[in-house]
Amino acid sequence: MNGSHRPWTSSPGPATAGNATRALQAAQINRAQRTLITPVAGTVGRIQVSHGNLINAQTVVTTVEDSSEILINFWVPERYSSQISVGGAVNGCRSMLPATLRFMGSMTSRTGPGFGLRP
């Protein structure tokens, strides 16, 4: 081997380290520009845009739904209505859904024919 050949090393030189730092910063900026942040907590609803759509600050991309408390109207035979009280546990399922999809929570209010439930 002649003296002009340098062995490969794993430590980058100053120019390579600077390029890597700039590439990382560019990636972080790109990610920040593509991140959606909401001021409220909740669950993301139906996405209203498709891949490739051009969006701006006024575009509705999705909705954020708060399902911490929901209103469910259900029929209870009169003979059982006295057993339902605010703070009581609620457990049931809808006849149109599979039995594995159950609703569980606690009664938070009783207003007319409806009941407030907290999952």
Write down the overall mean pLDDT: 76
Q: Multimeric state of these chains?
A: single chain
- Spatial order of the strands forming the largest sheet: 3-6-5-4
Would you identify the regions where 5 or more consecutive residues have pLDDT less than 50? none
Question: SS-based structural class?
Answer: alpha+beta
Helix tally equals 2
The proportion of strand residues reads 15-25%
- Count of beta strands: 6
Span from first to last CA? 75 Å
Topology as a string of helices (H) and strands (E): HEEEHEEE
Radius of gyration using CA atoms only: 29 Å
Main sheet specs: 4 strands, antiparallel
Shape: elongated
What features would you describe in this structure?
With 119 residues, the protein is an alpha+beta fold. It is 20% helix and 24% strand. Among the domains are: 26 residues; 52 residues. The chain is built from 2 helices and 6 strands. The strands form 2 sheets. Strands 3-6-5-4 form a 4-stranded antiparallel β-sheet, with no helix packed on it. A two-stranded antiparallel sheet has the order 1-2. A hairpin with an 8-residue loop joins strand 4 and strand 5. It is elongated, with a radius of gyration of 29 Å. It starts with 13 loop residues before the first helix and ends with a strand.
